[in-house]
Write a structure and sequence with these properties.
Helix content: 25-40%
Structural class: alpha+beta
Number of strands: 13
Number of domains: 2
CATH topology of the largest domain: Tumour Suppressor Smad4
Oligomer: single chain
CATH architecture of the largest domain: Sandwich
Order of helices and strands: EHHEHEHEHEEEHHEEEHEEE
Distance between the termini: 19 Å
Strand content: 35-45%
Largest sheet: 9 strands, antiparallel
Length: 304
């Protein structure tokens, strides 16, 4: 029998995931699915829970929460697979604020518990890529959706401070605050045999297509092509930011003169000043100076 471990972040979606726990358990029981439920209690806890679940013998680890929960669970699953020599699959029931990663998946909808139950019954696997993010001297972490360096990471940091609002309004308020506090420094960006050096507003390196609760920064990305899609944006004035936001929400920004898009297997970013870095919406560093992002083709099996 397939052993299923479910990692639930009750605080995801500003508490939405926790409120839906009874409905989730009722639906699982009604579908005849046997499972163990593991509830997180702190940031980073999902990594530990997923890793230990795989080592104990889980065949499938399900992440329930937002993109941050999905990221932690994937990292724990990878650690568990590497430690045990097993190949546990990954499944998602997105109940977060943004739920950006799943927008690249035709068979997955946000806030859809019945759909998640159906995927667990179907057990259809699809090999998908991850990205490995290495911040020199600090952290090594897999990305599921995207890593942002610069302004978008600053916006992610500001979003964590906004506790009184919910939904997309959090991200718009975070952008406004980031515009006030963010300072752009020259970045050196190396990929293939090329080096780009300029003051960047941000650089996003992505496996998925959508970030920041509805910004299609890398609209042509694929999660199974062994490549990373890169969006580099020169420093913009506040009026330009206001002008371009509607274009980014439609993925119609890729031809702007201030934007450069690339598709690469690996990219290196360096800066003489501290940079904020956010992976899948979670800030992992505010003092990064050397970042390497590498595609890891077919790293995990995703239930679709």
């Amino acid at each position: 029998m397939t052993k299923i471990s479910i990692v639930l972040n009750p605080w995801a979606g500003r508490g939405k995931a926790g409120k839906r726990q009874p409905a989730l358990e009722q639906a699982l029981t009604a579908a005849g699915i046997e499972y163990e439920l593991l509830v997180t209690n702190a940031r980073g806890h999902a990594i530990e829970l997923a890793r230990d679940a795989v080592i104990r013998g889980a065949d499938v680890v399900v992440a329930i929460g937002g993109d941050g929960t999905l990221n932690e669970t994937v990292n724990g699953l990878m650690q568990g697979n590497q430690a045990s020599g097993r190949h546990a699959a990954f499944a998602v029931i997105p109940l977060g604020t943004g739920s950006d990663f799943v927008k690249v998946l035709e068979t997955v909808e946000a806030d859809d518990i019945p759909g998640g139950i159906a995927r667990l019954k179907r057990m259809q696997r699809r090999a998908v890529d991850l990205g490995l993010v290495e911040v020199k001297g600090q952290v090594s972490r897999y990305l599921l959706n995207a890593v942002g360096v610069g302004f978008d990471a600053q916006a992610a940091a500001e979003a964590l401070k906004i506790t009184w609002a919910k939904g997309w309004i959090v991200y718009y308020l975070a952008i406004i605050r980031a515009l006030i506090y963010y300072k752009a420094f020259p970045m050196q960006i190396r990929f293939r045999d090329e080096m780009v050096e300029r003051r960047m507003m941000f650089t996003t390196v992505a496996n998925g297509r959508c970030q920041g609760a509805g910004f299609w920064l890398t609209p042509d990305a694929h999660i199974d092509d062994g490549q990373l899609d890169v969006c580099m944006v020169d420093m913009l004035s506040i009026p330009k930011v206001a002008q371009y936001i509607p274009l980014i929400q439609k993925g119609a920004h890729t031809k702007l003169k201030e934007v450069r898009m690339e598709r690469v297997p690996q990219i290196t970013l360096t800066c003489d000043n501290d940079l904020p870095v956010a992976i899948d919406g979670e800030v992992i560093s505010t003092t990064a100076r050397h970042i390497v992002v590498t595609s890891v083709p077919g790293a995990i099996d995703l239930l679709v």
